[in-house]
Design goal:
With 376 residues, the protein is α+β, with helices and mostly antiparallel strands. It has eight helices and 20 strands. Helices cover 23% and strands 32% of the residues. A hairpin with a 3-residue loop joins β16 and β17 (319-326).
Length: 376
C-alpha cells in the first residue's frame, strides 16, 4: 500500500465555479480515512480527482512517491467502489471479480486463486455462478468490494457505497468493510482506504480519522473521539453527533475574570469551572454549543441552569429526547430512560444545566472554538 497526499488541490469548472479551494490532506499508509460532509461539499469531487475521473485545476496529488495528476486512472494504482456497484450485468460474479486481472492477461491459475481468495474473504463463494440481477443489495456490494480488492491496488476509493442499502444492511456492511480492513492489516497487507459518505454515523464508526468538509474546504481532520469532544468550529460541532449539538446565540461577559458568564435568551449562567480558566475570548456576542448528552435536567430554581418549555418528547427506548424551547432557541436534552420523569408533558417548564466543561463557546463570526484548550 502507500500513503496519499493532496497538496493545495483546487478544482475550477469551465463556468468559473470553484468547487475545491486549495485543500491539503495526508492519508497515512494503511489508514482508513473518511471524507464526510453535507451534499455539495465537494467530497465526491475530491475523490474523483484522486481517481483520475476529474481533472485537477491546481495542486498536486501524490500516491506513494509518484505525482499522479497526469496519469490515467488505470495507471494510478487505485481501485474504486461506486455507489451503484457498477457490476457488468451480463457477467457472472466469478467473471466480474476477475475482469481486471483478465484485462491484464494474468495467468489463469493466478486468476482462479485470486478469485478463490477474495470470495473466501468476503464470504461470497456460493454467489460465484450468479448474475448480478440475482444478488441482493448487500451481496452486490460485497462483489463490488471484491472486484476492487482482487487487483491489490495501492489505494482503495469508496464513493458512498452503502447509500442504496436499507438501515439494517448498512450497519452490517459497515462492520464487514471495517473488519476486512483490519484483517488485511493483520495479514501484513494493510489497505489504504479513502471512503466518502454524507452519513456521519458511517464516518464515526468506520474511520481511523475523518476529514470534515464544507463548501470545498476542509474544516477539521481528526479521529472520531477528537471530532466529537474537541470540534474545531461550530460547523463540525453541529455536523458531528446524534442528535446534533445545540447551538445558540449568546453573550459572553467577564471573560477576563475568574467568573465568566453566558447570557442566553435573557438568562445568565456561569461558565463551568473546568472551562473558565482557559476560555480564549473577549466579552461580546458568541455562539454557545452543548451536546444533548451533556445537558442534565435539574429542579427549577437550580443555579446555572436554563429554563424553557417542553415542546416535544421522543421515547427512544434506552433514552428520551426532551425538546425544550428556551426563548427563540430549540434545545434537545438526552435523558436516560431510567432517570426520566414520565409525568413530564408538553408545555411543562423545565430547567437544563450544562455538564461541567462540556460546554463549548464559538466565535460568532469565524465559528472557531474558543474553548478547545479547556476540554480534557
Amino acid at each position: 500500500m502507500a500513503q496519499l497526499q493532496l497538496k493545495n488541490i483546487e478544482k475550477v469548472y469551465a463556468n468559473h465555479f470553484k468547487a475545491v479551494h486549495g485543500i491539503n490532506l495526508e492519508v497515512r499508509d494503511g489508514e482508513f480515512m473518511v471524507l464526510v460532509g453535507p451534499s455539495g461539499c465537494a467530497k465526491s469531487t475530491t475523490l474523483r480527482m484522486i481517481a483520475g475521473l476529474e481533472t485537477v485545476t491546481g495542486g498536486e496529488i501524490r500516491i506513494g512517491d509518484r505525482v499522479v495528476n497526469d496519469l490515467v486512472p488505470g495507471k494510478r494504482g487505485i481501485s474504486m467502489v461506486f455507489q451503484n456497484y457498477a457490476l457488468y450485468p451480463h457477467m457472472k460474479v466469478r467473471n466480474n471479480l476477475s475482469f481486471g486481472l483478465r484485462l491484464k492477461r494474468r495467468p489463469k491459475p493466478e486468476i482462479e486463486q485470486a478469485t478463490s481468495d477474495v470470495s473466501g474473504i468476503l464470504e461470497i463463494e456460493e454467489l460465484l455462478d450468479r448474475l448480478p440481477k440475482q444478488l441482493s443489495g448487500g451481496q452486490a456490494q460485497r462483489v463490488a468490494v471484491g472486484r476492487a480488492l482482487i487487483k491489490k491496488p495501492q489505494v482503495f476509493l469508496f464513493d458512498e457505497p452503502l447509500s442504496n442499502l436499507d438501515a439494517k444492511l448498512r450497519a452490517s456492511m459497515r462492520v464487514r468493510i471495517t473488519d476486512l480492513h483490519r484483517r488485511l492489516k493483520d495479514e501484513g497487507r494493510p489497505a489504504t482506504v479513502i471512503y466518502v459518505t454524507h452519513d456521519q454515523t458511517e464516518a464515526m464508526t468506520m474511520g481511523d480519522r475523518i476529514c470534515v468538509m464544507k463548501d470545498g474546504h476542509i474544516m477539521q481532520v481528526a479521529d472520531p473521539v477528537t471530532l466529537y469532544e474537541r470540534p474545531a468550529n461550530a460547523f463540525v460541532g453541529g455536523f458531528i453527533g446524534t442528535p446534533e449539538m445545540n447551538l445558540c446565540d449568546a453573550v459572553l461577559t467577564d471573560a477576563a475574570t475568574d467568573a465568566p458568564a453566558l447570557t442566553v435568551a435573557g438568562q445568565t449562567i456561569r461558565v463551568p469551572d473546568g472551562l473558565a480558566p482557559r476560555l480564549k475570548a473577549k466579552d461580546g456576542p458568541v455562539t454557545m454549543g452543548i451536546r444533548p448528552q451533556h445537558l442534565e435536567r435539574v429542579e427549577l430554581g437550580t443555579p446555572d441552569a436554563l429554563v424553557g418549555t417542553v415542546s416535544a418528547i421522543e421515547f427512544m427506548g434506552h433514552e428520551v429526547y426532551l425538546h425544550v424551547r428556551i426563548g427563540d432557541h430549540a434545545f434537545i436534552a438526552v435523558i436516560p430512560s431510567e432517570t426520566y420523569d414520565r409525568k413530564t408533558e408538553r408545555g411543562d417548564r423545565v430547567a437544563l444545566r450544562p455538564l461541567g466543561p462540556r460546554l463549548h463557546v464559538f466565535d460568532r463570526e469565524e465559528g472557531h472554538n474558543l474553548s478547545l484548550a479547556s476540554i480534557t
